[in-house]
Amino acid sequence: AVSKDWWRGAVIYQIYPRSYQDSNGDGVGDLLGIVQRLPYIATLGVDAIWISPFFMSPMKDFGYDVSDYCDVDPMFGTLADFDAVVETAHRFGIRVMIDLVLSHTSDQHPWFAESRANRDNAKHDWYVWSDPKPDGTPPNNWLSIFGGSGWQWDARREQYYLHNFLASQPDLNFHNPNVQDALLDVATFWLNRGVDGFRLDTINFYFHDAQLRDNPALPPEERNSTIAPSVNPYNHQKHLYSKNQPENLEFLRRLRAVMEPFGAAAVGEVGDAQFGLEIMGQYTAGDDLMQMCYAFEFLANAKPSAQEFVDVLLKVDDVAADGWACWAFSNHDVQRHASRWELTAAGQRMFATLIMCLRGSVCLYQGEELGLPEADVAFDDLQDPYGIEFWPEFKGRDGCRTPMVWEKSNQYSGFSEAKTWLPVAHEHLQLSVEAQEDDPSALLHHYRKSIHFRQTHDVLAVGEHSDLTASGDVLSFKRTLGGQTIFCAFNISDTPSDLDLPSGSWLPIGAELGSAQISQDGKLHLGPWQVCLALKK
Ligand code: TEU
């Protein structure tokens, strides 16, 4: 094997802690629940876990609104429980990445309480405050992703404060070096506790335009429904000034310098429907910046065609040649891809193998390995404020956040003993871990085999890719590392397809993944949703 940085090409398993495993019978998942399930996670063969926020929080955005960065919310456990997660994970050879939400805090954070008290306290400019326009309206036209103006009036200071998300998630003012220092201290606190890296929430929202210039409108033909629903007016603006500011690079360098002595790695979440890949390129361009950025290209939208895969992968070569992408098909913010792409079991299998053959790192979202469809959550059970705001055009994010299903018969599926914070989806029970462990043909085993295949072929994780081709519904490319070349082809459809192998002689590999045989005439006959993996002789 070639020596490589652990994060490069890694498979990272995302845990949404509220919904993974409840250990204390309150219907909400917690850190000791994760400890309990780490032996299962180890059987998947992943390199790392990324745990969504478990910090002290009023839970208005389910932990993405932090009121104390350096403590665990009692709902999730204690700092000692977190230490147990790290220790147990490390015992299994699994790295731990935590989700730092640095762009904004909760309005219940003591920093905000101090900042809003008056206009001349020590933290008066720790958040983005501004006087109203002469007519009393907000200082500019910036919008919140979760609906309405991005500015909230504060009666005490008689000023507005900026919030790119909920009004209870005020944006920090990164132009103030003291704010940067405080956040770097947070990173150091967790590095000292043994974490191996960070998933950095909304990394491109850290800085705003200091002059508070208006965002221009986005012409309808440039609108893209990626990330947030098209009904959201946020998507009708071009966000030139409310995020994506050049000053961010200098802060990211400071953050990397803090991480460097610990050998920690970061994956930055770039939320931007228009410039996402370009920003990924900028933020991962050098050894003094972020190692990876999380790509939104295959999240939130329709099933990508072979040509779209080619376009995205070529664009990454173009704008992020020195950088590194982290791919995901599902997460806690979007409709699960089994439903979003209307996949059959065979389609899910093909995409599982495909993502393991991409150049970049990979994030899997809990339950993806079971092929869970999006749960149908009734309005009365809805928890997500984003869903409540835009119902029924957009049903929010609860459908991908229902509890993990462990057992096939128990009404709470082994997740909990008590009524759960979101209902366990009845239709998920037949896909539970228990149900799939007993069935050798189940998707869970295919995920394990696909992950194992990637882990035993470094060329797939870190090799160069070339000859990216879309021929009808078939995506193909070569991966090369140190004299080894693997040809990969994927039939992204339920119609059989024939294609010619590239010149040279090829040895079929990956039979355990259902990889196609090569016929005598050198042709490849791909069945519905079939893949072909072949090693150059
Ligand atoms: O998401 C950032 C982001 O861009 C989301 O608003 C995304 O557009 C939306 O959820 C897609 O449906 C991060 C977190 O992943 C999300 O859970 C948080 O709500 C958000 O930041 C605010 O912290």
Question: Using DSSP, what is the number of strands?
Answer: 20
* Ligands and ions found: 1-O-alpha-D-glucopyranosyl-D-fructose
What sort of overall outline do the alpha carbons produce when their principal axes are compared?
Answer: globular
Sheet-strand content, in percent, reads: 15-25%
In the CATH classification, which architecture of the largest domain applies?
Answer: Alpha-Beta Barrel
Largest sheet: 8 strands, parallel, barrel
Which structural class fits the helix and strand makeup?
alpha/beta
- CATH homologous superfamily designation of the largest domain: Glycosidases
Briefly note the CATH topology name of the largest domain. TIM Barrel
Spatial arrangement of strands, main beta sheet? 1-2-5-9-10-11-12-13
| Tally of separate helices | 13
Averaging pLDDT over every residue, what do you get? 96
**Poorly predicted runs:** none
Using the CA coordinates, give the radius of gyration. Answer: 23 Å
Q: Tally the structural domains.
A: 2
Distance between the ends: 18 Å
* The level-1 CATH class of the largest domain: Alpha Beta
Write the layout of secondary structure elements.
Elements: E1 11-15, H1 31-44, E2 48-51, E3 55-56, E4 68-72, H2 79-91, E5 95-100, H3 110-117, E6 129-130, E7 151-154, E8 159-162, H4 177-192, E9 197-200, H5 248-259, E10 265-269, H6 276-283, E11 292-294, H7 306-319, E12 325-328, H8 337-340, H9 345-356, E13 361-365, H10 385-390, H11 433-437, H12 443-455, H13 458-462, E14 464-471, E15 474-481, E16 484-491, E17 497-500, E18 506-509, E19 523-526, E20 531-536
Parallel strand pairs: 1-2, 1-13, 2-5, 5-9, 9-10, 10-11, 11-12, 12-13
Antiparallel strand pairs: 3-4, 6-8, 7-8, 14-15, 15-16, 16-20, 17-19, 18-20
Bound molecules: 1-O-alpha-D-glucopyranosyl-D-fructose.
The site of 1-O-alpha-D-glucopyranosyl-D-fructose (TEU) has 14 residues, from loops.
